[in-house]
Amino acid sequence: MSKYKSKQTAYSSLKKKYVPLWRLDTNTVTITHFNADTQTEESFTYHTDFIRYHLHFSDSHCPDRLRRLVNEGEIMQYLDDMELRVSDAISRQVELWKQTDSCYQKAVLIGDAEKMLGLENCFISMARESVFECMVYI
Question: In whole numbers, what is the pLDDT of the chain averaged over residues?
Answer without folding.
Answer: 94
